[in-house]
Amino acid sequence: MKKRLSPLETLRISTLAAGALVMVTPFVYMVSTSFKAQQYVLQIPPQFIPSPATLSNYERILLRGDFGQYFLNSLFVAVTATALSVFLSAMMAYGFARYRFPGREWLFRLLLLGLMIPAMMLIVPQFLIAKWFGLIDTLWGLIVFYVAGNLALNTFLLRGFFEALPQELDDAMQIDGATVWRRFTGLALPLARPALATATIFTFLATWDEYAWALTSITSPENKTLPIAIALLQGPKGTQWGLVFAASILAITPVIAVFLIFQRHFVQGLTAGAVKG
Amino acid sequence: MPRWQTYVAPALFIAPGFLIFAALILFPMVQAVLMSLYDVKVVAGAINAFVGLANYARALTDEHLWLSLSNSGLYMVLTVPPQIAFGLAIALLLQKTSPAQPFFRVLYYLPVVTSWVVVTLLFKYLFADRGLINYLLGLQVSWLSDRWTALVAISALGIWKGIGWSMMIFIAALQGVPAGLIEAAKIDGANPWQRFTNVTIPAIWPTIAFVIIMLVIGGLNVFTSVQAMTDGGPGGSTDVVLTYMYRQTFTFLDFGYGSTIAVLLTALVFALSAIQLRFFRNESTA
Does B173 contact chain A (CB < 8 Å)? Predict the structure, then answer.
């Protein structure tokens, strides 16, 4: 016999489905438009299944523009900044979690202050600092500020995790003659893998998508990252929407893939931040 | 050895990260406040004149700044309640574990992980004169060429992109509500609505407070979506505080005034957060 859903259950699922439709329709329409030629993108009635469908937007993005360069720039910046930020944060978090020293809480509070300050408040002085160090319009100029901007959150996230690790293992290794560094890299880091994964994912997303600082700092075409390259695809009159969305889809695919693969860590990371914060 | 244990070892772990943090986050914080007291000249060799609170006096009487602030405030008012209400409603519908749960969770969370620039351009396209929204609603509205309709479009984007975040946090909070409490209320004859208002809401109250505070901060700090959707247009009427600050700084090169606006906004955000923290704390002990 077929299992029947109760009326309440049916209502629940259909409400959820209606909501999900609202969330997903814009994406579907974006994918559809990326396969349309310019004369069809604002056609009325709108087409959800493009006819005629064309690959010309993707061809132009992949073969004719500097999209590959922007993609590589974004990848280099996001991967380097994420690796550095997570590693430095892990060191800091370990220092805060494993040692008691005068001024510890005071230092940590300064770090928390960085969590509360809106990034945009700092953009003016940061611009002048970057200019002073010759970091304007360079990829490393993006990287160092992305590293700095993500330190506070990651340290906060990882400190709690390191504090929860059993001290006995650490003591046992110390008795066996392991140095502090050995205990950090050989014991603490491997045990903290789930928390490191969470920190890595969030930092990667934040740096891959960052817009305001890149917009301010980058002026040369060859140093553009994806968000500014995509924003600049809009023309003053008559944006080539098919082109914009073909580029957009190529840019968000890696992020969505990362999200789908590591969903579990997203939930954990958000929970850690929300429940403790 | 004790000295090593107390000072040197933690310093070696903390110093590299903290120095970067101090130089690129803490120092600019102080710098922003200092710069707001100067007429900053960006030209090499020029000397910055100390102007005291003149930038602040200017801000208080700057009508466009007040307009920008009212737009930021309106955005906040239009986006925060729906994100809470929808986020919580969906979380309630999703809390029961079922095969469909992860599927729906992913769909609702998808906009959160998508870059702001991409979703902003997407909404600009949907709200275009000949776009999907007008077609579906049977309207002929030129959404982005009027202050109020443009703010509606920008707010719609903010809600759509933010629901998944609050949903995810509420799901986690709801899982922490002891099932025994709900059962006990059921036995006492409470109907579902009473169980929700008398058991669930108090149990997740700290999370609701956290989400509201975070969303208020985020709402006042709205920038990318406005910048990419209207860039403050038409005629600056949809400027929010940060787009106005950005233009003062990087178009008019008035770094001192730009810093003043940034400092004022930060002060406002801090004050609002402090008031809310007090309020929510009193609520939960009452």
Answer: yes
